[in-house]
Specification:
single chain; 241 residues; 88% helix; ExbB/TolQ_transport; Tol-Pal_TolQ; mainly alpha; disordered N terminus
């Protein structure tokens, strides 16, 4: 008799889909599941957007480096980029050149002050570009750390509800216990489905953003050295005159 009840309960549980488990769940567990599903969808939207943006940024960096080292004059390259609202290295270059031109137009006399202003302009632009690159990555970190606990919260609530149903029915057969436990565990499963891609993507995208940032920082340092030499040359000509 007992084996028949257990077998019947297992067959019943095996025929229940996840959609059925969702509709059978309590209100709180449903809200937890819906929230996790929405977070998972938004997580994948961010991942796809960032992958595409980082790929485009790498192409832009390669293209700018080819133009910069092609032998074109700095003034010509600046005039080409200034009206395009460039990003990445282009934005750093334009910021430095804009400060360079403004300082000489106003008759800057101190080469040290000019060098400091150019470096400050590049640092500010570089920080702005990094903020743009790393935007919304914090959401991935939050989902990766919080989603399992949110799912666990739904599981705890579901198990509590199942125990209350067992107490109310005064039966302990698998047919009574299994559906409630399955509903509860579904919340944890959805939490893990949301968290695992978020953690992996956060680590990967953070590393990619760091590599892009290092390339821009290296260019800023190198371009600062180039401008420093030109400042010294102009100062030498001015002193000789």
């Amino acid at each position: 008799m007992g084996e028949g009840i257990v077998t019947e309960g297992l067959n019943h549980a095996g025929g229940v889909s996840m959609w059925d488990l969702f509709w059978q769940a309590g209100l709180i567990v449903k809200l937890v599941m819906i929230g996790l599903v929405v977070a998972s969808v938004w997580t994948w939207a961010i991942i796809i957007d960032k992958v595409m943006r980082y790929a485009a940024m790498r192409r832009q960096l390669n293209n700018f480096e080819n133009q910069f080292w092609s032998g074109r004059s700095l003034e010509e390259l600046y005039q080409t980029l200034v009206d395009r609202k460039p990003t990445g290295m282009g934005a750093v270059f334009v910021a430095a050149m804009r400060e360079w031109k403004k300082s000489f137009e106003k008759g800057a006399r101190s080469p040290i002050g000019l060098q400091q202003r150019i470096e400050k302009a590049m640092d500010v632009t570089l920080a702005r570009e990094m903020d743009h690159l790393e935007s919304r990555l914090g959401f991935l970190a939050t989902i990766g750390s919080a989603a399992p606990f949110v799912g666990l919260f739904g599981t705890v609530i579901g198990i509590m509800t199942s125990f209350q149903a067992i107490a109310g029915s005064q039966q302990t057969s698998l047919a009574v216990v299994a559906p409630g436990i399955a509903e509860a565990l579904l919340a944890t499963a959805i939490g893990l489905v949301a968290a695992i891609p978020a953690v992996i993507a956060y680590n990967k995208l953070t590393a990619d953003a760091g590599k892009i940032g290092m390339r821009m920082e290296s260019f800023a340092d190198e371009f600062s050295s180039i401008l420093s030499r030109q400042i010294d040359e102009r100062q030498s000509v001015r002193n000789a005159a």
